[in-house]
Give the backbone structure.
Amino acid sequence: MADENLPLHVGIIMDGNGRWAKQRLKPRNYGHDAGMKRVMKLAAHAKDRGIRYLTLYTLSTENLNRPEEELEGIYDLFRKYFGEYAVKLSKENSDVRIIGDISVLPADVQQKMLSACARKVENPDLTVIFAINYGSRAEIVRAANLAVQRGKKVTEEDFSHLLYTDGIPDPDLIIRTGREVRLSNFLLWQAAYAELYFTDILFPDFNNAAFDKALKDYSLRSRRYGKI
Ligand code: IPE
Ligand code: IPE
Ligand code: MG
């Protein structure tokens, strides 16, 4: 598959953890735990396949309206996995980056995330970008306010530098697991020309073979960007 047309940047809307747990008569956070475990397998696979950027929709701005118990469980998982993942990724020559507003998270969780992002490697093979308390509309409004503060008109390029994703190329492929066919406020600006791929597979079951199937599908697409 060496000559295959591969995406440089893949975004994944990791949906279906709650339903996966429900199928097993377990609490929702059991599904989130399984999802977090899945993340590292996919990151390793993405790197093996030569993908350079992997953006994982981990927690949306809207998800912050979920019951306190679920959110506390999710924060506990961040506590449990973030440090370990950052060490592992940097050993594998990968970087961690976060997009979104983490300032509303518990202080110790923020600290874990900031130290994960601080472990920079020189020329990362892969950058794993966690979207946390991320919402495109909030991101765009934030960028618009930054532009207003600067007091002069912006071009599309200037504007893209004001987004959380500054310096990251636009996603080529966005995958959504878990059956729903929507973007749920994920990378709306950046996904203007992304290829979209939807699968019924619930995120904890989205294994490397399923990922390869999405990549194969992508490789067969014709991206015209409005041309003929
Ligand atoms: C996605 O899984 C993870 C988060 C949004 C935090 P869900 O928790 O939305 O799982 P479902 O959609 O209820 O199955
Ligand atoms: C999208 O899933 C957010 C993440 C996967 C982090 P949701 O489960 O929150 O999306 P909706 O509510 O079905 O649109
Ligand atoms: Mg969901």
The beta strands are 9-13, 53-60, 94-99, 126-134, 173-176, 195-198. The CA atoms of residues 10 and 173 lie 5 Å apart.
